[in-house]
Amino acid sequence: MTRLCTSVDEAVSGIADGSTVLIGGFGTAGMPFDLIEGLIRQGARDLTVVSNNAGNADTGLAALLAAGQVRKIVCSFPRQTDSWVFEELYRNGKIELEVAPQGSLAERLRAAGAGIGGFYTRTGVGTLLAEGKETREIDGRTYVLELPIAADVALISAHTADTLGNLVYRKTARNFAPVMATAATTTVVQVRHVVEPGVLDPEAVVTPGIYVDRIVRVAAVQGRAA
Amino acid sequence: MTRLCTSVDEAVSGIADGSTVLIGGFGTAGMPFDLIEGLIRQGARDLTVVSNNAGNADTGLAALLAAGQVRKIVCSFPRQTDSWVFEELYRNGKIELEVAPQGSLAERLRAAGAGIGGFYTRTGVGTLLAEGKETREIDGRTYVLELPIAADVALISAHTADTLGNLVYRKTARNFAPVMATAATTTVVQVRHVVEPGVLDPEAVVTPGIYVDRIVRVAAVQGRAA
Amino acid sequence: MSVVSAGVVEHTDRGPLGRDEMARVLAGDIPRGAYVNLGIGQPTTVGDHLPPESGVILHTENGMLGMGPAATGDAIDPDLINAGKFPVTELPGASYFHHADSFAMMRGGHLDLCVLGAYQVSVSGDLANWHTGEPDAIPAVGGAMDLAVGAKQVFVLMSLFTRTGEPKLVRECTYPLTALRCVDRVYTDVATFEITGGDQVLVRETWGMSFHELRSRVDVPLTAATP
Amino acid sequence: MSVVSAGVVEHTDRGPLGRDEMARVLAGDIPRGAYVNLGIGQPTTVGDHLPPESGVILHTENGMLGMGPAATGDAIDPDLINAGKFPVTELPGASYFHHADSFAMMRGGHLDLCVLGAYQVSVSGDLANWHTGEPDAIPAVGGAMDLAVGAKQVFVLMSLFTRTGEPKLVRECTYPLTALRCVDRVYTDVATFEITGGDQVLVRETWGMSFHELRSRVDVPLTAATP
């Protein structure tokens, strides 16, 4: 059942040290800034974070990294011009990095949510990122076996939720959130708006409430994605 | 590029003998009746049809079976009380049957559309439907390897299309259509309404036009899903 | 009215449950707010015993959460059906999705519970419910295998005996299997069972039959639930 | 202005192409109505040369088809960005989808074309564009590997020589690979190449350099395109 939380701190409560935490967003679009700030206050350490990037500038995921709470990051693109927090930690050996092709990252999250034990993809065949991974010929083509990424917690952002946890997003801020919501034991969502059941168009719900455990409404911040 | 056809016959033209044809619908909901009638007129034979059921009563897929155009059917549930056309063909050895768990059928179609060479699922492990299929232990659980189902043609039904081929569906008539649209070389869609680009809400498009090759508008029929 | 013997609640002063009563007993054990899939046939009737205040949200594998009761009259819409292909309705807060998403939901372990019919259930929770195994039977599995492996809990709803009196709770299934070690509870007309994964099945409650009589009629080691 | 020699169109009366001209040449070869993904960096500029009447529909891997030009002023929306994280706009007929759906579209072979930058391309069409291989480089792949294996055609847009004059069209890539045998065409400042899968690379056109001069500067067997 989906719980509507009255504060960000309530929404992120109980995240244990050593957890695997999925963090939505592509760059800053769809990044759950308020939940990350809550996680920094909450203080869980030794985290493995899965997110497309490794933080931008000094807020959001970058602030979580700076707080020293993250042991390892799994992402596709940690090398952005404003990923200086990550870069310093990485160069000083203070954070582990696993790079995955962006599509394999998304599909591995989906697999975890869909009960798929593993899948064969052509992405990465013959490259450094397939080293140590099993390959296989299927129908004359070579594929690499990728395994699911399941997590303890997903922190994501959506535009509007109803009180049953059904979610809709806004434009490209949708990105990883719907698959991450399916791959975590506990999915926590920050939203701009909360409405009663029946307000969202059932044909247009992107994440059904079954995937959502906690919702918290946050204020809109100028120039920042919800 | 998506082509708006002026007739059902144009929409189903060129389907070759021996083709694998995906036919949308769950029972009669979402079944592309007009396209199937077109396929009967068009006359392609020796078809392999992939559809959830094996036809109901004497229309739609059942009529295609009765016309003797189908060599083999791949489905999850051929045993409905009104699947008499299939039953007679089957008992007389005039049609081949491959039964697949409904979820594996849907996922195999998705895999074909998503470039997945194969995937491991727990569904079917230890049952007749996994016989002859490879199994594997992953993380202490047994999985069976399932392979993609790619097709030459998909015949599906949607509610509204724009002229770029973007589709929305109606209620549970959506069912297999979105995954089938991704798994076929040529996807043909019958729709109730055609609108200009920009009319459909970009957040609510279910099948992006990239998956759609031909659209044809058909009249609504009383008591029958679009 | 109820007699407690060896820990089992025994309702021996009345006959076995009717089909509607069986559905009601099972419905009473569904947790508030659970996401539930009701299999086609008898399991569908469990929905009649889930009032709105239960907060239970019904999933139908043909692509919907928030399914409402059967549709009648003008509410019948050929685009809105359940897994048994009967017209149903939509509740506020419903959502639609395609088949791959619907089965990802099932297979990914997100449904709290599914209710299935059965030909046989074994001591270890193996389920046989899709194929009689007769040579001329047309095999048809639908979503049964996906539900059986995917739902967090699997409740079976069935009569305990066949028409010819054979028990359907067995040491080993003789019918073709749907899934291994997947059943958690079995709700029947004469007793409710809990599959524990051991070599015994727990009896929670009986109707029209004592625990001892039940033991004599079922070729499976039965234990009384501790009260 | 153009000289045809050995089948290659040679524009030797002018210098190599500028970055904008390279993008324009490539854009001119994109078929009408194609679904195209433009990689981050220089490939993005190809979009400036695709007028609405081209009917080309742009995909961005962060979840959108029907992407419009860069957003400016009040049209900037932090929720609407391209793969390079720059604000963009939405065209009529656009659609949004999540990352797994977006990459399923790429990996499933549905995009007609993608345009990527490169460190190196080999005779057989191997692509190296994600990692310099230097020990202290932070590896970052993004969606490059998915695009390279998934798009029906891969066009590379790059300068032919490094700043130190090393050709980037090579017999074997020395940089870490992005994907094997995936590149179809290479658009550079001095020539346009076609990878045929054989042991020769086809030269279609040159700028500021003759076919013979090109041959002497690139350590790869080159053939003239048949006119």
UniProtKB/TrEMBL annotation, chains A, B:
One of its GO terms (molecular function) is CoA-transferase activity. Keywords: Transferase. The keyword Transferase applies. It comes from the Bacteria. InterPro entries: 3-oxoacid_CoA-transf_A (IPR012792), CoA_trans_fam_I (IPR004165), CoA_transf_BS (IPR004163), NagB/RpiA_transferase-like (IPR037171). Signal peptide: none annotated. PANTHER family: ACETATE COA-TRANSFERASE SUBUNIT ALPHA, KETOACID-COENZYME A TRANSFERASE. Belongs to the 3-oxoacid CoA-transferase subunit A family. This is 3-oxoadipate CoA-transferase subunit A. It comes from Virgisporangium aliadipatigenens.
TrEMBL record, chains C, D:
GO terms for molecular function: CoA-transferase activity. Keywords: Transferase. InterPro entries: 3-oxoacid_CoA-transf_B, CoA_trans_fam_I, NagB/RpiA_transferase-like. Belongs to the 3-oxoacid CoA-transferase subunit B family. This is 3-oxoadipate CoA-transferase subunit B. SUPFAM superfamilies: NagB/RpiA/CoA transferase-like (SSF100950). The lineage of its organism: Bacteria, Bacillati, Actinomycetota, Actinomycetes, Micromonosporales. It holds the Pfam family CoA_trans. It comes from Virgisporangium aliadipatigenens. The gene is catJ.
